[in-house]
Design goal:
There is one protein chain. The chain is an alpha/beta fold and about 675 residues long. The protein folds into 3 domains: about 270 residues, 2-enoyl-CoA Hydratase, Chain A, domain 1, CATH 3.90.226.10; about 180 residues, 3-Layer(aba) Sandwich (Rossmann fold), CATH 3.40.50.720; about 140 residues, Orthogonal Bundle (N-(1-d-carboxylethyl)-l-norvaline Dehydrogenase, domain 2). It is built from 28 helices and 19 strands. It has an 8-stranded mixed beta sheet. A 7-stranded mixed beta sheet has the order 1-2-3-4-6-8-11, with helices on both faces. Helix 18 links the parallel strand 16 and strand 17. Helix 4 packs across helix 5 and helix 15 runs antiparallel to helix 16. The termini are far apart. The chain binds 1,4-dihydronicotinamide adenine dinucleotide (NAI). The site of 1,4-dihydronicotinamide adenine dinucleotide has 24 residues, from helix 14 and helix 17.
Length: about 675
């Protein structure tokens, strides 16, 4: 006997075990949308009417169990009361699973995230496929926290420290780790998954009680201590004013940790408040923008396998290592063996950090081949040039490359400032050349600008985007114009920081102001990290093309060899470990009030110019690019979104006031009136 639902499939086997499979209709991925939850509720009615030995909930989709709740549904709600009702409905269904009289098992493979893990937590047992499974409660990354009873059940199952860590960091863990911490009962190879799930139903193991100290930590008198510690740790990373969710979660547990019924209700209230707030709405928007960039990188039938990188310096070496880590076969060419040696050493360090286990490390090293003679060119699907920033050198190189590669090989340059059209003159078909502008450090920076020159064929841009997606980076198509998008917008902001410093505002005050606004690090620290020589080079290039002055102090510092972190001294001084030494400031912290305005408005004004010139397709992509390329305060939703929420007119007037006070560099771009 089997009854089919729209999203679920329910079968009973000979031992009267109900196998309940989720296969969300019209979707490649299982998510807990309203209709999925409602249908589950009906199924629970059906299960109440029959006698079963147990229920196994699984996913009928190959890619994973359940990716989470339907975020889009939640953010369409602007009324906290409606959000509360919706969350309570979800909670009620989870409660019904928990109350089933028979054993219930979540049989998990692939991703099991957010609402998906909350559903699994409502089951009595969990069994996970050992190799592909990733479990997590990443809600904080979207500005909320678990809302379908996850905060209650995770705490009961794992104890407060582990549960809070999982929810506050939002990190994903694999099946082995999940088994170790008690999140799943078993982690088994795929071939044993069904049998294992069935065994949990037929011979249900007895629950192990939580260790005494974990139970004690959940007591009313103990919670304030741990809560204080958690609060302190979280506030080292984010502020409650910008990212309220983790703090709300700590508060929830602190107040109601040992009263499950109350805690459930308060959990729903808290998520309802958060989800209708500005931070969550903006973070969810950023999430969808990221999805948009990913889908721009999907190209049916294009599967590059072999990459040849030329130039094994800072960028080329890291690009090559990254590509090999993503499973591609990579040859890396440089003029010197020493550079290639350094590439291999850096790659090993990266793999050790990221891949951890010996076998995957060895496999990645095997895919990365030093190739001083450039033998890899012939077979490459993609060639990435990353030699130094010199037009003639790049032209000479591409002239030679074109004679050696296949006609369909993708030809990319990592240039940061040379117009593509100029490099392209070296090729018989300049339309083959596309820019792949990576950011430093490659392994950390998710964004890659896909630079389209005047001649670049559009299918070349599509393939470059698909390649970027293949190596798990976010492709952002931009026009070939000075500084492209990210550096162009970033530079006026960095230069304003230098001017502020020149005018006597302390460098800490400048950095502090930007961090308070929501930037991941202050502009002075950022300039030191990027390297002042690189900043100077980009700034001079931009001022040559677009006008504007480069602060004299920057040039002086570079001339003196103070290049930032890498030389041990820039605006700050650094110790051997690259840690900035505290500066005892004697200068009064003047300028306070308008420091942030001066920094952000120069940034935003340049963003307007880019939109006017069509450097980027639209304002949404600009927001995404600046968040993933420069870390612009994600909770504000990106620079354009920020302007819109503050009020275009208000901000434009602030610009005009700054123009009167500080001169032409604050002249509002013509695009302001078009927003
Ligand atoms: P780098 O100076 O660290 O490395 C350049 C490497 O290319 C050196 O190892 C050199 O031996 C090698 N090389 C030079 N000519 C060669 C040739 N004809 N054949 C083979 N190898 C050759 O330079 P970096 O910083 O890695 O920059 C490379 C490119 O990436 C430049 O176009 C730069 O504008 C761009 N870029 C740099 C960023 C950065 O933060 N450093 C960021 C984004 C782009």
């Amino acid at each position: 006997m089997a009854k089919t639902y729209k999203n679920w499939k329910l079968d009973y086997d000979d031992d009267k075990v109900a196998w309940l499979g989720l296969d969300k209709a019209d979707s490649g991925t299982n998510i807990l949308s309203r209709d999925v939850i409602d249908e589950l509720n009906d199924i629970l009615d059906e299960l109440g009417d029959v006698t079963v030995r147990g229920v196994v909930i699984y996913s009928a989709k190959a890619n994973g169990f359940i990716a989470g709740a339907d975020v889009k549904e939640f953010t369409s709600l602007t009324d906290p009361n409606m959000a509360f009702e919706l969350i309570r409905r979800g909670q009620a269904v989870m409660d019904r699973i928990e109350m089933l009289k028979c054993p219930s098992v979540a049989m998990i493979h692939g991703f099991c995230m957010g609402g998906g893990l909350e559903l699994a937590l409502a089951c009595r047992y969990r069994i996970a496929e050992a190799d592909t499974t990733r479990l997590g409660l990443p809600e904080v990354k979207l500005g909320i926290h678990p809302g379908f009873g996850g905060s209650v059940r995770a705490t009961q199952l794992l104890g407060p420290p582990a549960a809070m860590d999982l929810m506050l960091t939002g990190r994903g863990i694999d099946a082995r780790r999940a088994k170790k911490m008690g999140l799943v009962n078993h982690a088994v190879p795929e071939r044993q998954l069904r049998r294992g799930a069935k065994a949990l139903v037929m011979q249900p193991p007895r629950d192990k009680p939580l260790a005494l100290y974990k139970r004690l930590l959940n007591k009313k008198w103990a919670r304030p201590l741990l809560a204080k510690y958690l609060w302190r740790n979280v506030s080292k990373k984010v502020s409650p004013e910008h990212y309220p969710a983790p703090f709300a979660l700590i508060d929830l547990w602190l107040k109601f940790g040992d009263e499950p019924t109350e805690m459930l209700r308060e959990e729903a209230l808290s998520v309802a408040r958060l989800i209708t707030g500005a931070t969550a709405q903006n973070l969810v928007r950023v999430f969808f923008l990221q999805e948009r960039m990913k889908s721009a990188g999907k190209l049916e039938g294009y599967r590059p396998q072999r990459v040849h990188v030329i130039g094994g310096g800072v960028m080329g070496g890291d690009i090559a290592a990254w590509c090999a880590m993503q499973g591609l076969h990579v040859t890396v060419q440089d003029r010197s063996n020493e550079s290639l040696g350094r590439v291999m050493a850096r790659a090993y360090k990266l793999y050790k950090k990221k891949l951890k286990r010996a076998r995957p490390i060895q496999a990645a090293m095997d895919r990365l081949v030093p190739d001083i003679h450039g033998y890899g060119l012939k077979r490459a699907d993609v060639v990435i040039e990353a030699i130094f920033e010199d037009l003639e050198a790049k032209q000479t190189l591409f002239r030679e490359v074109e004679t050696k590669v296949r006609p369909d090989t993708l030809l990319c340059t990592n240039t940061s400032s040379i117009p593509l059209e100029e490099i392209g003159t070296a090729l018989n078909d300049p339309g083959r050349l596309v820019g792949l502008h990576f950011f430093n450090p490659v392994a950390q920076m998710q964004l890659v600008e896909i630079v389209k020159g005047k001649d670049t064929h559009s299918e070349v841009v599509d393939r470059a985007s698909a390649f970027t997606h293949r190596i798990k980076r976010l492709p952002l198509p931009v026009k070939s114009s000075p500084g492209f998008l990210v550096n162009r917008i970033l530079m006026p902001y960095l230069m304003e920081a230098v001017v502020l410093a020149e005018q006597g505002v302390s460098i800490q005050a400048i950095d502090k102001a930007a961090v308070k606004f929501g930037m991941p690090m202050g502009p002075i620290t950022l300039a030191d990290t990027v390297g002042l020589d690189i900043c100077l080079h980009v700034a001079e290039n931009l001022s040559q093309h677009l006008g504007g002055e480069v602060p004299a102090r920057l040039k002086k510092m570079v001339d003196a060899g103070h290049l930032g972190k890498k030389s041990g001294r820039g605006f700050y001084r650094y110790d051997k470990n690259g840690k900035a030494q505290k500066v005892s400031s004697t200068t009064p912290e003047k300028g306070g009030q308008d420091v942030v305005e001066r920094l952000t408005l120069r940034y935003i004004n340049e963003a307007m110019a880019c939109l006017r010139e069509g450097v980027i397709e639209d304002a949404d992509l600009l927001d995404a690019g600046m968040i993933f390329g420069t870390g612009f305060a994600p909770f504000r939703g990106g620079p354009v979104k920020y302007v819109r929420s503050e009020g275009v007119q208000v901000m434009r007037e602030s610009m005009q006031q700054l123009e009167e006070k500080y001169g032409e560099r604050f002249h509002p771009d013509a695009y302001w009136s078009q927003l």
